[in-house]
Structures are given as structure tokens and as C-alpha cells.
Amino acid sequence: MMPFELAEPSSLKEAIGLLDPDDPTIRPLGGGTALMLMMKSGLFAPSTLVSLQKVEDDCRGISLSPDGGLSVGALTPLRVLERSGDAAAAAPVIPRAMRTLSNVRVRNVATVGGSLAHADPHMDLPPVLTALGASVTVMGPEGDREIALGDLYEGYYETSLASNELITRLTVPAQVGVRAAYLKVTTRSADDWPALGVAVALTGAGEAVDTATIVVSAATEKPTRLTGAESALAGATLDDAVLRRAGDAAADEAELISDPQGSAAYKRELLRVTVARAVRRALDGEAG
């Protein structure tokens, strides 16, 4: 790796002040699990890394709001979120999904904010959190703003964050009556990058679906809602015919990409089948 400077600010304001919106070689550093791989492979050569490890602001920890919503500091390690009783109470699909998110060594170090800001379309958390209606709080030189997770991702490794903004907090609204599931399809081990990820959040009782949110990832350039598949489910009582219609609608509307995990044609057939399986798993699972 090329030599670089390491800055270690003690506050978010100081860290943001070190980020230059006109210099892409200055980057914030959370857990560093993704950034270091990019540096070692020669994909990124920073002039300065702004470490967030000594930031003393309230960017760590997990709490439940009185209505059952979840608040997660951006510097909270993924492993802490995975093992959190509050996260399991608010949205059981989150810790379930994280058990196959990379491996324990990575989850011990990688941070929630860094994993969301990285914007690799193969990440497991973005589709899950998008389906749950989550948002992030972002701080920049002009103050804070809220971004719905569905609006955070703009393309392959692209977000709506300015280069001198930092994610400070993740918020997941209360999931009253929501049944959710996440299915990932891998070509190798269960914790490998997925060829396809599908997150589903349903409201309704029994086999009846009032509303449905379906988000596909890994096979697309960014986490993407499948509104046609959602419409096929909304207001329906689930049976095999309804699930087939939803799977067909998903396969028809998704703009899929080819990559080392599989061709677009292969992923289209995976999506057709996996949407139905994810819906059934959500229906059979616990609320939240």
C-alpha cells in the first residue's frame, strides 16, 4: 500500500472538518474491513484516513424507543447489533439476517454506519433495513439531516451522501404487526457474498396480506423495491397461484446484473423462486 496520513479526531465535528468535499483521497475510517481490502488490492489509494475510533460523541450503542422503534449508533459493531436483545425485540429479522453476514471476525470489527455507507450492492443489511422502512441520520458541515434508506443508495457503490457527511445513527421504526424475512442465495458458503438477496416485510393476519414490501439486492446495482411483486401480494390471500404471480412479476420488473456470483439470466430464475420462498418464510415467521 502507498503511505497515507492517519487523523484521529475526538468528535464528529472535528472529523467532518477534516473531510474535504473536493478531495476524494480523504476518507473516513470506521471498522475498515472493506476499505482496507480496497487499499490492499490497489483499488483505492488514500492521502488521509480520518479514523472515527476515538470519536466521543454518542455514536455507539443500541436502544429501544417507547413505541418499540430501534436506534443504533453508527459506530456500533455489527456483532453487537447481531447479539442485541433490543434488536431482536424490535425486528427479529435483523439478527437472523446477520448470522450469515460475512463471518464473525468481520462482524466484530465492521461498524453499522460503515457497512451502510459502503454501498456494495451485495451487502445483506441494506435490503433488510430498506424493507423495514429504516432511515439514517447524517451529519455534515450544515448540521443533521435524515435520509430514508431507500433514498440512500443511488447506484453501484454510490450513495446520496456528500463526501463531507457521516452517518451518525440508524433508526428502524416500530414494526407493529410486521412479519419479515430475508433470504440470501450464495454459490459457495452460507456467509459468502450473495448472488441474490430478497427481503420481505408483510402486514396482515394469517394467510391474508394487507401490504407488502419486497426489496432485491446483490442481483441489482442497488437495493431495489419490486413494486410489481408488491402489488401482486397486496390485498391477496396467499396461495400457490398468488406466489407464482409475485415471483413472475419480480422476474419481469427487476433490472439484473451479471457478476462473478452468476449471470443475469441465472439470477432472474433465482429471483422468481426466491421471492415466493421469502414471502412464505415471512408469513410463517414471527412478527417484527
Biggest beta sheet summary: 5 strands, antiparallel
Reported by name, the CATH topology of the largest domain is Uridine Diphospho-n-acetylenolpyruvylglucosamine Reductase, domain 3
What is the multimeric organization of the chains shown? single chain
Briefly note the structural class of the backbone. alpha+beta
Globally, the shape reads: globular
Q: Which percent range describes the beta-strand content?
A: 15-25%
State the low-pLDDT regions, or none. Answer: none
Give the distance, in angstroms, between the N- and C-terminal Cα atoms: 44 Å
Tally the structural domains.
2
C-alpha Rg, in Å? 19 Å
- How many beta-strand elements? 14
Placed side by side, the strands forming the largest sheet appear as 4-5-10-6-7
Number of helices: 12
Mean pLDDT: 93
Any idea of the CATH class of the largest domain?
A: Alpha Beta
Structure commentary:
The protein has 288 residues and is α+β, with helices and mostly antiparallel strands. It has two domains: 62-172, 2-Layer Sandwich (Uridine Diphospho-n-acetylenolpyruvylglucosamine Reductase, domain 3); 178-284, Enolase-like, domain 1. It has twelve helices and 14 strands. It has helices at 12-18, 33-40, 78-82, 85-90, 93-98, 104-109, 112-118, 125-131, 149-152, 227-233, 240-253, 264-284; strands at residues 5-7, 26-29, 48-51, 62-64, 70-73, 135-140, 143-148, 153-155, 158-159, 166-172, 178-185, 196-203, 211-217, 224-225. The strands form four sheets. The chain has a five-stranded antiparallel sheet. A four-stranded antiparallel sheet has the order 11-12-13-14, with helices on both faces. The protein has a three-stranded parallel sheet with strand order 1-3-2, with no helix packed on it. Strand 2 (26-29), helix 2 and strand 3 form a beta-alpha-beta unit. The longest helix is centred in the last third of the chain and has 21 residues, at 264-284. The radius of gyration is 19 Å and the shape is globular.
